[in-house]
């Protein structure tokens, strides 16, 4: 979660509090006190971030109010709902830790044996998986790496990829997962990943945030009733790799983990002269999947920064 900063700053320019040491500390506390102890320790920390992080608090309120308006719900979310959103984020961090150390298995995840997931699992071709900052998708990735024994490369926008890899190896030495830090997508990135796909491996990327270096390459589409910018990079990558593209989310609902897997396309083909429109259609399909999930489990989408453009139906939060 980011610190306070200038309202115009990009999310990735804000320092992530505890980004470098947080996972290691959580792993230590979990080993010492278990899940209940982790929650007891994490709750006051999360509440502190809620009180001190004005911009993150406003972003949560803005997002939840957009969900309420889009669904036509009565009333208007306030601090009680936003605190619940923050606490759900804290809980997801513990879920991720449990996933990597093997405390969560496939029997605890609904729909993981569903038709779409089985099709992806049984397909020998390499696959690009578009995910989002939803729930604890690490649960499905960790389970897949243990049971499928297929290597998974996860592209992240954090400079701490090496540190996270070290933690995964410490707590889950048999894991088939590796994290790769990327700052921007270009021809070189696609070329480097092409061999990975050709080996039949999975490549996972979050497609709901602009990259570290905001080059302005965004595709704007409606999300929860207002224009929002989504990164072009993951979808250009999908076109370059010419492989099956799935969406994969894992979130908590009514105390149970739930996996949501869908085939987005069996291979992107962008006809000459129609590249821009082809990319827009792919983004719209992805956003439709994300929006369906967000509406069914609104507290499970974790983006604590100004997501919509100021002129894109600003909600006018003043708290």
Number of helices: 9
Distance between the termini: 19 Å
**What structural class should be given to the helix and strand makeup?**
alpha/beta
Count of DSSP strands: 9
Helical proportion?
40-55%
Describe the strand arrangement of the main beta sheet, using strand numbers: 1-9-8-2-5-3-4
How do the SSEs run, as a string of H and E?
HHHEHEHEHEHEEEHEEH
- Total number of domains: 1
Strand content: 15-25%
The value of Rg in angstroms is: 19 Å
Biggest sheet features:
7 strands, mixed
Folded structure, characterized:
With 319 residues, the protein is α/β, with parallel strands linked by helices. The chain has one domain (11-300). Helices cover 45% and strands 17% of the residues. The chain has nine helices and nine strands. The protein has a seven-stranded mixed beta sheet with strand order 1-9-8-2-5-3-4, sandwiched between helices. Strands 6-7 form a two-stranded antiparallel ribbon. Helix 1 packs antiparallel against helix 3 and helix 2 (54-71) crosses helix 3. The longest helix is centred in the first third of the chain and has 31 residues, at 22-52. It is globular and about 50 Å long. It starts with 21 loop residues before the first helix and ends in a 23-residue tail after the last helix. Residues 2-20 and 312-319 have low confidence and may be disordered.
